[in-house]
Amino acid sequence: MNNIPFYRRLYFKLSSVFFLLLAVVLGVTIMASFKAAEQQFHQLFVDEFQGTRRVVNNFLRFIEQTALITAKSAAADEQLHAGLSSGNHEAIAARLKMLMEHNRADTVI
User: Fold this and answer.
1) pTM of the predicted model, to two decimals?
2) Residue range 60-77, pLDDT digits in tens
3) Structural element, H or E, at residue 19
4) Which one, of 72, 66, 74, lies nearest residue 92 by Cα?
C-alpha cells in the first residue's frame, strides 16, 4: 500500500462509493418500476372483472325483463284463461308458446 499514492487510493475509494450508490439507486428504481407495473396489472385485472360482471348483470336483467313481460302478457291473455278454465292442456301449451314467440322485451321497448 505504501507504493500507491494517496490520491490514487482516494480516487479508487470515491469511485467505488459512487458506483455502489449508483447500483443501489438503480436497484431501487427497478424495484419501484416493477411494483408500479404490478399495481397497474392488478388494476387492469380488477377493471376487466368489473366489466365482465356488469355485462353478466345486464344480461340477467334483460332475461328478467323478458320473463316479466311474458308473464304479464300471459296473465292478461283471455284465451289462456279460457283454456285454463276448460282444462285443455294442448290449447294452453300452444297459447303459451305463441305468447313467448310474439312478446319479447325488444318489441315492447
Assistant:
1) 0.53
2) 998 888 888 877 877 777
3) helix 6-76
4) 74
